[in-house]
Amino acid sequence: MSAAIPPQAPAGTAGPDHTGHYSYTAYADPQMAESFDRIRFGGPIGGLLLETQERVLLDFLGDLHGRTVLDVGTGTGRAALTLARAGATVTGVDASREMLRVAGARARADGLSITFQEGDAHALAFPDASFDAAISLRVLMHTPGWRVCLGELCRVARDRVVFDYPALASVALLQSIGRRVGARFGRRVEAYRVFRHRALVQELARHGFAVRRVHRQFVLPIALHKVFGSRRFTEGLEAGLAAAGLLRLFGSPVTVVAERCRS
Question: Rounded CA gap, 238 and 232, in Å?
């Protein structure tokens, strides 16, 4: 089996041109694509992030045998590979051809059959309810039109959607402000947004979905844990903060599973 990358994906519905936004230009860089996994998932804390992501995804999606899943903003395909290993039929979509190249090579090396194709999260080229589930990790925080993207996830999913976001009520707010200020002064940074949970709940409701469960990962920022560089220290410290009730109040990033409401 191998990963398939169609030579030309069908075009989605026409909309605003976002291609000049950093979320498109940064990930179109071949060096970014090659180094992304090492930066994000390298070292003991990166390994902890990856393990947690895989565990939460599989827990939220349940039995995947015979089910179809769309991974929007698949990047280098880490989540797509996890879902395929669990028995799902997976399609991964990303705007970056370079990221898809890495994802396809990884899937082929693992003997997994995954369809990867170019596409825009703002206009997914699939019919309504064409997948059992749709997921999107580390996308809404960066994308120019998060409401449109969330609506597209809900549109193509029959049963449930899974996505994550940095919380407004967390230390991520300070980093987000710093990056946005830097971007205004010409620095090349990923000036991501943070979210109020209520805003996401309301947007999901507009599309007939309701939040069922959430998972909050850390109280302290991931960058700080990477400075410590000790998985044992991070797990012990975060367990203490969780026991004190701080994870429930200030935990971030937050992963959400929402299900379609049945009338």
Answer: 10
What totals of helices (H) and strands (E) does the chain contain, helices first? Answer: 11, 7
How far, in Å, CA of 149 to CA of 120, rounded?
9
CB distance 57 to 135 below 8 Å: yes
User: By CB neighbour count within 10 A (0-12 exposed, 13-18 middle, 19+ buried), where does 179 fall?
Assistant: middle
Cα–Cα distance, 189 to 136 (Å, whole number): 21
**What is the tens place of the pLDDT at every residue in 110-152?**
999 999 999 999 999 999 999 999 999 999 999 989 999 999 9
CATH topology of domain 22-259: Rossmann fold (3.40.50)
pLDDT band at 240 (very low <50, low <70, confident <90, very high): very high
